[in-house]
Amino acid sequence: MGGGFDLRVEPWIAVRLLTGESACVGLCELFKRAHEIEDVEIPVPPAAAGLMRILASIAARIAADGENRLDDPDVAEDIEDWFDLRERVLKAERFDPDAVEAYFGREDLAGRFDLFHPERPFLQDPRLRVECVDAKGEPNPSGVNKLMMGRPTGVNGAVLFGHFTDTAPVPVPAAQALWHLIAQLYYGPSGQCTPRRITDVRVGSGDAAPLRKSVSYFAWGPELFTTLVLAVPSPQAEVDWETQDACPWEEDLRDPLAALPPITWPGRMLTGRFRHAALLVPSKDGRAVTDAYLTWATHQPPQRVRDPYQILDRRGDGDFQPREADGARALWRDLDSLLLKDSRQGARRPPALEHLPKWLLPRLRVRAYGFDQDGQQKDSVWFRATTPAVLRWQEENDAEMAYHVKRCHTAAEKTGDRLEFAARIAWKIATDTSVDLSPKAKTKLDARKPGPWAAAALTRYWPAAEKEFWQFTDPGHTTGRVDRPFVDAALAALDEAIGQANRADIRVARARHRARGLLLALLQPPTPD
Q: How many angstroms separate the Cα of 506 from the Cα of each of 414, 430, 491, 502, 513?
């Protein structure tokens, strides 16, 4: 076995200090200096989303006012008492260094933060060395490329972020491997995986990770201390309050074939719902990872609990599901779902953005981490985005502005939908000689042949719409109609997509005229019922 890699002191978390300097810190230093840190700078957003949940669960163990901690179930019995405690913690403006030392120095956690510990490596299962074997009983690791999101695996794997192959894997620095381990545990795929033999049967399939294809939203403070305290979920979730709460590094290894323990607050809610099991193979000096095992952790049905950082959208059947990440969708398009109360629209605001201290609202931004994926194996793009200080516009604090933001977003979305339709109509008219060009004739579209103009127009429209949107958030722009600038942006995007050279063609000219008419119709006053 390689040497140890103690996450409490090893510099594995990239951060930016309030002074503007970049640094890498271990867990102890991160919490002791959280009031000096502006941001975490993990370059893998899925890993950052998972890391924030891990840090929030630890923050709940550390943040305290005297003997009362934020994870104290006795304080949580009265939600107002818990909010009062959080207020006092925030007013302290830093984590108590002695509390940080006390948590990371607990005797029962000795070795639990070692990435390569022989018996309890952090967030890993050492049993995989003997359970992931081939038919001859020889070790059957998954390969380091399987661990690293973005690297190709197998014969036909696509090269996304570098040239790596299974026949010539490149070792990974330990810190970077941990980022991807966290990403796999929170966003990993379903389907075929490295077989794991526990009984006489080798099972080689698993379920999707709990955050797969989702986007997470965090209240982002002026420094990391505030961000982490606000990331601790309030004790209002439907969880088991009779069972002792624990994070994976605080309890014994689970039996993969046994029933899952109940969801408790806040540790198991944030860090206890993994569907994958992993084990990293270190280099001889313990500074890098040369191989990895990645397989299933359980086949028990996943336990449902409301994730505190996700928007829930109402489905057609009336049930709710987490909003899916879309790499082509800018964060401002979700803003009304973060500002308005749940009862006034079809989306439910993340619980972590509820009941925020009013005195902090003018300084709070929203950070989003998303991973555009399908439900099984395909990974498209991950992203990170941060808004300006918009949470001061939440409905409870500024209802006029919250609904103005909704009007602006609705107008932008409606115009975007009309632009896509109009551009497809224009392409059909310009290229299909059988189309009736009379003004009142209906044009039938073929979903399989949208043409290039719609995508090109939308690519140009959304950045321009975002610019108009933020201009509407300036003081004095909360009254009157808001649709004209978005329609103007759509008209310009349509013309750019069609191109100047094509307009001399009579069919293109007529197509452009029809499409512009469809967009300008949005400016007509609504017809009374």
A: 29, 9, 19, 9, 11
Pairing of strands 172-173, 191-197: unpaired
Cα 398 versus chain centre, distance: 27
pLDDT in tens, 223-238: 999 999 999 999 988 8
Q: Is the peptide bond before 266 cis (omega within 30 degrees of 0)?
A: yes
Q: Are 171 and 144 in contact (CB under 8 A)?
A: yes
- Find out whether 266 and 247 touch, Cβ atoms under 8 Å: no
295 forms beta bridges with 277
Give the pLDDT confidence score for residue 209 in this predicted structure. Answer: 97
- pLDDT on residue 438: 67
Show Cβ contacts of residue 187 under 8 Å, excluding neighbours closer than 6 positions: 46, 49, 50, 149, 209, 211, 212, 371, 373
Q: What percentage of the chain has pLDDT greater than the value 90?
A: 78
Please state at what angle helix 79-92 crosses helix 224-231, rounded to 10 degrees.
170
pLDDT at residue 160 is higher than 50: no
pLDDT tops 60 at residue 159: no
Tokens of 173: 């620095």
Q: Which runs of consecutive H residues, i.e. helices, occur in 219-262? A: 224-231
> What tokens does 139 get?
């070790």
